[in-house]
Amino acid sequence: MKMQQLGLFTSSLLLTACAIGPDYDRPKLSIPEKFQMAEAAREAESFANLPWWELVKDEELQRLIRIGLEENKDLKRAVASVEEFQARLFTARMDFAPKADITGSAPIMGRKAEFLFPGFPNPFNYYLQGNLAWELDIWGRIRRSNEAARGDLLAREESRRAVVLQLVSGVAEAYFDLLQFDKQLNVAKRTLKSWEDSVTIAQARVRHGVITKIDADQFVSERANAAARIAELTRQMVQKENQLSVLLGRNPGRILRGQSLTEQVLAPDVPAGLPSELLQRRPDVVQAEQTLAAATARVGAAKADRFPKLSITGILGVASPHFSRLIANETSFGVVGPSVAGPLFNAVALGFQQKAAEAQTREQLAQYEQTILVAFREVEDALVAVSTAREQRAAQAEQVEALQSALQLASLRYKGGLANYLDVLVAQRNLFDAELALAGTHRLHLVSVVQLYKALGGGWSPLDASQQMPATKVVEARKG
């Protein structure tokens, strides 16, 4: 009868209990209706909904991305961190259940006397004892602790997604850098060959007294400039290959290329979608919000620590000075009942802990708001970069075409004696610089699209099972 009364008492307490402290609600934010640099016709659906393998068409780049998703060390560390916090959440959930353990004693060596107190556990008796402790979550301390642990887990999962997004965009940008260096290196080598031909002609004209040595030295100087640029581009290319190798999780080495810089095809339309979508799509924004939610729950847990804790405790066992009489009626003992423990001298310290938790919540709120502002700025920067890079590339392509025509005409006039060396020198130098700049702008356009996709929180994560994060039941955590 007493056990039934205790059960009814416990059930009534749990049913009427409530979690003290603030419940998390998303803060009210000032969200613009649309992005400033987005075109009106492109606001319906964000191109960030595309999976990455539909964004980049180069098969070699796709292969490198998949290698990075499997071997990158930072991503493996992020995955392990998620698994760690998943285990921490499961540990926090176990606080809801009663805790039971068993102890025993067998004084078979060194006992000098017998204390004949059967049913009383002590070091001189044989005994088995089971202990029970079950904290009743009256004030919601355990529930708030579970909310905090769940928020920490979801924040770590978003951190993993951020690493994936950073990794794949980093691989794509480094790959486009390599293609730029390849293109510029070809331009520099072709220009060097042209300058070598010009130097040969100039030196022949010096011997025949047509031009002075000072004029010929100008061609030699430009040839040296092209040779120096080749050395610089070679160094940058090898260093970029080393950087990309580390992203792929392997030792520095040669990186294979697929399509050339001018053959790369990305999405022709890059609608940004609605700014409000960033709150659910960008992993750093979602991570900051989950961290804020965890900090809010810790305020409730810290507040609950200042209230008395009500628990159900009990012991049950047998004890006897003789092993042969261990199992007998007079050797058993047991008791069960409620117990209360509350803060006394540490109440002031617990108050300061609550203030610290509240201050941490305000800190995370400011971080969340700052993360959103940075996200909007990055999207606007990427949008203007995409639009202006496209226009800049078209203008520079027209410039290169005009300079090629000018160089061809200047060379014909110079060889025919109708123009001096300065016309050829200036035309060749301008074309060289313009071709290098065009390659850089072509790369800038490609990278700008990738950066916009990243800024919008694009769907970098692959859907196939071979590249999914192992053993992370995040859906279950969200439901919990």
Average pLDDT figure: 84
The sequence of SSEs as H and E is HHHHEEHHHHEEHHH
Largest sheet: 4 strands, antiparallel
Total count of helical runs of at least 4 residues: 11
In CATH, the architecture is Up-down Bundle
Strand content: 5-15%
Keywords:
480 residues; elongated; Outer membrane efflux proteins (OEP); alpha+beta; disordered C terminus
Characterise this structure.
- The protein has 480 residues and is α+β, with helices and mostly antiparallel strands.
- 61% of the residues lie in helices and 8% in strands.
- It has one domain (32-97, 139-307, 366-479): Outer membrane efflux proteins (OEP) (Up-down Bundle), CATH 1.20.1600.
- The chain is built from eleven helices and four strands.
- The relative contact order is 0.17.
- Mean pLDDT is 84; it is low at 461-480.
